[in-house]
Amino acid sequence: MMEPDAPGPTQLTFWGTRGSISTPGRATEKYGGNTPCITIEHEGTIIIIDAGTGIRNFGIDYLEEHADASEGSELHLLLSHTHWDHIQGLPFFQPAYRPGIKLRIYGTAHKGGFLESILRGQMDEEYFPVSMSALGAELHVQELSHSTFQIGDVRVDWEEQIHHPGGCVRYRFTVNGKRIVYASDVELNKELDANDPAQRQQLSDYLAFIEGADLLIGDGQYTDDEYISKQNFGHTTVPVLIELAQQAQVKQLAIFHHDPQHSDTMLDEYLLELEERFDTGDNQLNFFWAREGITLPV
Amino acid sequence: MEDKDKSDKADRHDTEVGIPHPLANRGGVRNHPLSNTMPISRKTIYSRPKVSNKVVLEIHGLEEGVKAIELGDQIVTIGRSPECEVHLPLANISRQHAQVVFRKDEYYLEDMDSTNGTYLNGVRVKKCVLRNNDQIEIGEARIHYLEEKTVGKP
Question: Measured between beta carbons, which residues in chain B are less than 8 angstroms from residue A30?
Fold first, then answer.
């Protein structure tokens, strides 16, 4: 009797980790200057999360490694929302120009049927010289409907996050019993008002969604001091993110969506402060800055 | 006093009419009538001195003490096997554990499906582009990645 094949590895790569706007230059080369893009690869299934400027480098790498990519090659792009920093790389994504490749784009249904028109709009000739209809790949834009769906062996759960201007979707990926959660662009600080039942519910939903995650990619754009002048911008402070991840017994936390003003030096120094502040001895949470160009086994 | 006025007027006049054409410096000829600055030829500007990074892996945890290996454009393998360029005869290290590869002007650390994993700055990684001062942990060894900028002759 043949042994069943052992499950293949799952790998997650950060192609862009910066929030708001790309920040090229020496001061940001360690943690990266490209805006959000992550890939999850498992047994030939490739899921791309967000199409910030980082997707450009993924596209180049993908075509180098899959020189024969054509008929039947399928890529799944899950958008959290359509703010510039999460879609601006799409017109520079080379596989989208390759005939035969199928590119399935998923996003919120809360835009009232406008997801495709938003993506098409950024390729209007007033903004970009090539129109979306000129893309050679077979494009399917799908608005999310069921709260759970399957891509290959990967189960995808999603929820709307309301504390970001315009809304934003968080995703949970389950494969081989491992859970990866992508929950960026959300102002969790707003959910901490224990006297407000609606906020208590929001927080409870968030904690349930990330509970026990093997890897959480979470929004940690601001320091406590910065947040004072950045309330309602739709982003979370790093200490709040760490506290909530600890509470939900997350195993690894990649702090994501770095503020454009945060240099590598600042982030390194700040992490030392945070290590001291959250050193609880037996706490198992491993938190670190998400870093462009890194591939993690999950 | 009168002489100084004349000189000021002359300066103003020359400044007004002496706006250099953007391409005037081509071939090292500077047409600006007031400029005494030494012209630099385009050849000098664009034939840049060779700036290179001297990149070193500093290996800690060996019995013989700290060992340094300079990286070039060849693959450097790391593991317990004596055939590895970075030979680590220590516990919890696979025979072929990891490698450092030079690609597109960057050094990448790649885990070679090792049993106990490769860690970069405390995080288990499959692959990662390396940056100055990164700390690699492999079994009981610690490897410090260091870049040192050097300027040589063109």
Answer: 131
A295/B131 touch (CB, cutoff 8 Å), yes or no: no
CA distance B146 to B135: 9
Q: What is the pLDDT of residues B24-80, one digit of tens each?
A: 455 445 566 667 788 888 887 787 666 667 999 999 999 999 999 999 999 999 999
Chain A residue numbers touching B129 (CB-CB < 8 A): 292-294
Cβ contact A186:A196 at 8 Å: no
Per-residue pLDDT tens digits for A126-154: 999 999 988 999 999 999 988 899 999 99
Distance (Å, whole) CA A122 – CA A85: 12
CA distance B51 to B46: 13
What DSSP string runs through chain B?
A: -HHHHHHHHHHHHHHHH-PPPTTTTGGG----TT--SPP--HHHHHS---EEEEEEEEEES-TT--EEEEE-SS-EEEESSTTSSEE---TT--SS-EEEEEETTEEEEEE-S-SS-EEETTEEESEEE--TT-EEEETTEEEEEEEEEEE---
Give Cα A36 distance to the centre of its chain: 6
Burial class (CB in 10 A: 0-12, 13-18, 19+), B34: exposed
User: Chain A residues with CB inside 8 Å of B126's CB?
Assistant: 9, 11, 295-297
ipTM: 0.92
How is residue A1 annotated by DSSP?
-
Q: What is the pLDDT of residues B105-151, one digit of tens each?
A: 899 999 999 999 999 999 999 999 999 999 999 999 999 999 987 66
Of B117, B122, B129, the CB nearest to A288: B122
| C-alpha torsion angle, residues A240, A241, A242, A247 (rounded to 10) | 90
Question: CB–CB of A137/A99 below 8 Å?
Answer: yes
